[in-house]
């Protein structure tokens, strides 16, 4: 197999330039033309980098951990695809876990905290991880990148624009003529839920409508069922509802159907996040699609920059915005 020196000789460049291209480092500047020449030689000789040796030289394990709240949640599909795509480009393997496994004394937590076993942790925990576990993470040098807006934990973070998503969903209902719009789902301890609710409040106030207290019933299908029951117990149903996530919205649709409520004639429903289930339920669910794949790619890129000591671009991603997907669960109010 060709060596870096052989590739450098054929390309007419230095070995350090070849190393920079192969390893994706930023310490050696390589022009676009030089990079193309090096990549052409790499393709010609069929060079395959030795990831194990490369990780050893960098004193890295070549593995990152991704830990999310509720692995069964389908909204993570696009996030994980983005993470795996970017991790593959960086030569990393990915260990996947659920925050439910992150409890003191667990084997999974021991693996995360083990010296040299994980290069970095990408974490989305909705503010629901035990403080003792967070203390263990803070005590270790392994970089942690949050996949949500939680700057008060003093970790770097990247996030989608949850506030915009909540505002976009609410504005869509208001523009359709709804005046009584409610917010259902999520936890009031969850920063993503609070951001989406804040978007709802902002839109209602901008339209000179009184925002109502959020009905925080949790996540998942059951949360939507509970949310509908809470709305129904309040007497007159609103004509529009923004649901914190797509699975809860599916549960709310089912509860409305069981109760004989016609969606969208009597109740319009918008779910935040988009997943295949939005096209499966009846009526098909109007959603606000969040750029989760872009979030996954950005997270890996930024944690790589942290490990390399390069500059980072943190915060809410702006290259892709939330997108309204109009389906059959919304219509102008009939009353």
UniProtKB/TrEMBL annotation:
<keyword id="KW-0238">DNA-binding</keyword>
<keyword id="KW-0805">Transcription regulation</keyword>
<dbReference type="Pfam" id="PF00356">
    <property type="entry name" value="LacI"/>
</dbReference>
<keyword id="KW-0804">Transcription</keyword>
<dbReference type="GO" id="GO:0003700">
    <property type="term" value="F:DNA-binding transcription factor activity"/>
</dbReference>
<dbReference type="InterPro" id="IPR046335">
    <property type="entry name" value="LacI/GalR-like_sensor"/>
</dbReference>
<feature type="domain" description="HTH lacI-type">
    <location>
        <begin position="2"/>
        <end position="58"/>
    </location>
</feature>
<dbReference type="InterPro" id="IPR000843">
    <property type="entry name" value="HTH_LacI"/>
</dbReference>
<protein>
    <submittedName>
        <fullName>HTH-type transcriptional repressor CytR</fullName>
    </submittedName>
</protein>
<dbReference type="InterPro" id="IPR028082">
    <property type="entry name" value="Peripla_BP_I"/>
</dbReference>
<dbReference type="GO" id="GO:0000976">
    <property type="term" value="F:transcription cis-regulatory region binding"/>
</dbReference>
<dbReference type="Pfam" id="PF13377">
    <property type="entry name" value="Peripla_BP_3"/>
</dbReference>
<dbReference type="InterPro" id="IPR010982">
    <property type="entry name" value="Lambda_DNA-bd_dom_sf"/>
</dbReference>
């Amino acid at each position: 197999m060709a060596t870096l020196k052989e590739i450098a000789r054929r390309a007419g460049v230095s070995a350090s330039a070849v190393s920079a291209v192969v390893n994706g480092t930023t310490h050696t500047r390589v022009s676009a033309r030089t990079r193309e020449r090096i990549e052409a030689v790499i393709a010609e000789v069929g060079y395959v980098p030795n990831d194990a040796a490369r990780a050893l030289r960098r004193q890295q394990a070549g593995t990152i951990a991704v830990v999310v709240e509720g692995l069964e949640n389908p909204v993570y599909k696009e996030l994980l695809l983005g993470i795996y795509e970017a991790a593959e480009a960086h030569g990393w393997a990915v260990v996947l876990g659920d925050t439910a496994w992150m409890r003191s004394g667990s084997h999974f937590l021991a693996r995360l905290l083990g010296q040299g076993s994980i290069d970095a942790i990408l974490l989305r925990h909705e503010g629901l991880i035990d403080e003792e576990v967070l203390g263990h993470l803070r005590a270790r040098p392994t970089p942690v990148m949050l996949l949500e807006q939680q700057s008060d934990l003093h970790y770097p973070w990247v996030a989608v624009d949850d506030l915009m998503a909540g505002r976009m969903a609410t504005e869509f209902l208001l523009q359709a003529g709804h005046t009584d719009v409610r917010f259902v789902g999520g936890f009031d301890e969850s920063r993503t839920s609070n951001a989406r609710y804040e978007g709802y409040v902002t839109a209602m106030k901008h339209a000179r409508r009184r925002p109502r207290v959020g009905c925080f019933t949790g996540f998942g299908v059951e949360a939507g069922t509970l949310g509908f029951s809470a709305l129904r117990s309040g007497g007159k149903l609103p004509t529009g509802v923004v649901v914190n996530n797509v699975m809860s919205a599916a549960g709310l649709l089912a509860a409305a159907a069981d109760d004989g409520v016609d969606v969208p004639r009597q109740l319009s429903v918008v779910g935040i996040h988009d997943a295949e289930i939005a096209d499966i339920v009846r009526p098909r669910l109007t959603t606000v699609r969040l750029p989760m794949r872009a979030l996954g790619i950005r997270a890996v890129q930024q944690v790589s920059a942290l490990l390399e000591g390069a500059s980072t671009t943190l915060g809410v991603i702006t290259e892709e915005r939330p997108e309204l997907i109009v389906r059959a669960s919304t219509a102008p109010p009939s009353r």
